[in-house]
Amino acid sequence: MTPLLEIEDLNIFYGAFHAVHGVTFSCDEGEILSIIGANGAGKSSTLKAIIGQVPRSTGTIRFAGSDIRDLSTPKRIAAGIALVPEGRKLFPSLSVEENLRVGGFPGRRGSFDLEGVYDLFPILREKRRQAANELSGGQQQMVSIGRALMMNPRLILFDEISLGLSPRIVREIYEQLPAIRARGVSMLIVEQDISRSLAIADRFVCMLEGRISLSGRPGEVSRDAIADSYFGAH
Ligand code: ATP
């Protein structure tokens, strides 16, 4: 079976700075893949390269069998990739419902509509007319995830879902990820909370200084090996 996403020899540059070096991995349809690594390892840059938001990259990014590296971000979204960005990036003065509608493609029918999002996160139904900036950080994160789902993606890229949120709200959000996957959405999760992200992932890749230092299935790799590849063995 062809993987849904195939990254081959990806290099990312910020001006003269070479941030990501020859990264290769893939994500199958229906898979949850976790990307772990310390600050600055290149995780966010890798997600941004997949959605088309880095200044310069080389290598191949194939999605559903087609090379998308030369496509604009809107075309990649139309192809079925959505990003839940770090910091959520909502329209603060628009209502919950208006923010969700921003993600909706007119006339495009998918597995998630407004009601589908409200079923996942019922608190958003209650708050649908409130401005996004009146919501708690966790509720805003739910809106950000809902907005991505409204794009009817085949693959969602999550950048730091749990950053700055309380453990309770993070648990509530993570509890809904299997339901999202059950609707046929694959996921790439970049997360500081390694145990949480490994607990839900089918496979992981660990990045260290712009390279993949280890990959595998969480249950099949020892904690020590993960720690060494995360911090760099000395
Ligand atoms: P974090 O958890 O801190 O976001 P990360 O693993 O996601 O870390 P990236 O944000 O991808 O890492 O950063 C990888 C490297 O690229 C770092 O050295 C970072 O300083 C650099 N970098 C990221 N964005 C830019 C940018 N816009 N301009 C210049 N350098 C950048």
UniProtKB/TrEMBL annotation:
One of its GO terms (molecular function) is branched-chain amino acid transmembrane transporter activity. The keyword Endoplasmic reticulum does not apply. Residues 5-234 form the ABC transporter domain. Keywords: Amino-acid transport, ATP-binding, Nucleotide-binding, Plasmid, Transport. It comes from the Bacteria. PROSITE patterns: ABC_TRANSPORTER_1, ABC_TRANSPORTER_2. GO terms for biological process: L-amino acid transport. Pfam families: ABC_tran (PF00005). Belongs to the ABC transporter superfamily. PANTHER family: HIGH-AFFINITY BRANCHED-CHAIN AMINO ACID TRANSPORT ATP-BINDING PROTEIN LIVF. This is ABC transporter ATP-binding protein.
